[in-house]
Amino acid sequence: MNTTELQSLKARLHGRLILPADPDYDTARRVYNGMIDKRPAAIAQCADTADVVAVLAFARESETLLAVRGGGHHGAGLGVCDDGVVLDLSPMREVRVDDASREVRVAGGATWGEVDRATQPFGLAVPSGIISTTGVAGLTLGGGHGYLTRKYGLTIDNLIGAEVVLADGRVVTASASEHDDLFWALRGGGGNFGVVTSFRFRAQPVGEVYAGPTLWPVERAAEVLRWYDDFMRQAPDDVYGFFAFLNVPPAPFFPAELHGRTMCAVIWCVTGPIAAAERALEPARRLGPPAFTMLGAMPFGALQTMHDALMPPGLQWYWKGDFVRELNEQAIAEHVRYGSALPTALSTMHLYPIDGAANRVDRHATAFSFRDARWSMVMAGIDPDPAKAPQITRWAKDYWSALHPHSMGAAYVNFMMEEGTPRVRATYRDNFDRLAAIKAKYDPANLFRVNQNIEPLTGGSGSRSAAP
Ligand SMILES: Cc1cc2nc3c(=O)[nH]c(=O)nc-3n(C[C@H](O)[C@H](O)[C@H](O)COP(=O)(O)OP(=O)(O)OC[C@H]3O[C@@H](n4cnc5c(N)ncnc54)[C@H](O)[C@@H]3O)c2cc1C
């Protein structure tokens, strides 16, 4: 890549091409995880699909490393790279709702907050995650789990189509009736197959939910985990609650005496009539008086923003995860050990339920394979201070090592750092070979490789080692 090539790309774009000498270069190269400090040669802020086509042609012809960025939230910092070009979709954020058909079109650089703002006035929601600041693109392409998973499935189970710019520059539609192999791969296979410029979802009727946290002293964590396991096994799909170890933030709605205390919690989101939701959570009250509970009816969009202020961009993050099917006594003991010893105020462990409707989809129906898991687990070391990076990394790795033997042996691609080809392969189990074949069809030169990479199938084996 030389200056003339960059200048020619700059002239073709409707959006901006930001270069290292530009005053906003440092802002533009930043991603959500403050631990990531990569210096691309250029950042192309794409204004439209034509810009995406132009940037892909540039990367292909100049053989430049390419990183694609949606919301920039991936923990491993996959929305940026050293020396290459970043295709940044953040200017493309339009969300359009057709309330009659419940179809929602979302541009490739939007965040979930923008989707909620557009859908909630119609009493609709697209099942997403548990925070509003994550990008729609990365979350969806990895599968997407959150507050509505037990009721309405993963985010990909609500995806009905996508506009994709392929590695060779063609713009295609992927859906059940067009490029159905690509559509299958996009639903869980990550950013391996093309740049999605627009997603088409079917939204669900979700206005108000009964939601909020219940907190118990960490000394009761083993008892609470056993109860939670049992309760969730029998709970109807309307009931969602993710388990967490956390330090109580010094927010005014928490009693001052709890501020800074390490506790265990379940953060609930119950759909359906409010009176029924109250009754559904009655067993949680019978567990004995919690240290604190703040449950009530609220708009779904408000619940989605509850964690936003606590987790601003720029913090140091190191996380690892695994899919989990059972909580045996040894696993509970290790959870109590590491969960009681959170290394910093913001560090946390979450067990996100992915059963209910998500479990009822066949594991070969989409690329997302772990349809038989009950939880997607993540241990996240988090702190604003870069000097704490080694400490939070060590804790997350040690915690993960203690729990990995009790897991299903593989993780959600959106909760992995750069952990190598065997871990990516494990995520897809017997869907992997089909993914590698589809990769060979749509991206044979592996242009899209700054991701949880699936190498194109070559002559049958399909698994050389990945190196972005
Ligand atoms: C605070 C926080 C909370 C989270 N909570 C949840 C949760 O509740 N549920 C959940 O499922 N996940 C959750 N995640 C994980 C989240 O799904 C991933 O971080 C996801 O990758 C974010 O998507 P993004 O577009 O912001 O990321 P990016 O870093 O921009 O991209 C992630 C990957 O997707 C690719 N990509 C991005 N945009 C496109 C595109 N338009 N076309 C093709 N490829 C693209 C990138 O190349 C990269 O490989 C959370 C993450 C954070 C930091």
What does this structure look like?
This protein is α+β, with helices and mostly antiparallel strands. It has 3 domains: 3-88, Uridine Diphospho-n-acetylenolpyruvylglucosamine Reductase, domain 2 (2-Layer Sandwich); 95-205, Uridine Diphospho-n-acetylenolpyruvylglucosamine Reductase, domain 3, CATH 3.30.465; 208-415, Vanillyl-alcohol Oxidase, Chain A, domain 3 (3-Layer(aba) Sandwich), CATH 3.40.462.20. Helices cover 28% and strands 23% of the residues. The strands form 4 sheets. Strands 12, 13, 14, 15, 16, 17, 18 and 19 form an 8-stranded antiparallel beta sheet that branches. It has a 5-stranded antiparallel beta sheet with strand order 5-6-10-8-9. The chain has a 4-stranded mixed beta sheet with strand order 1-2-4-3. A hairpin with a 5-residue loop joins strand 8 (159-165) and strand 9. Helix 1 (3-12) runs antiparallel to helix 3 (49-62), helix 8 packs across helix 12 and helix 12 runs antiparallel to helix 13. The chain is globular, with a radius of gyration of 22 Å. The two termini are 17 Å apart. The model is unreliable at 460-468 (pLDDT under 50). It binds flavin-adenine dinucleotide. The site of flavin-adenine dinucleotide has 33 residues, from strand 3, helix 5 and strand 10. Flavin-adenine dinucleotide binds at residues 32, 68-75, 78-79, 89, 108, 129-131, 134-135, 137-139, 141-142, 144-146, 190-191, 195-196, 311, 414, 451.
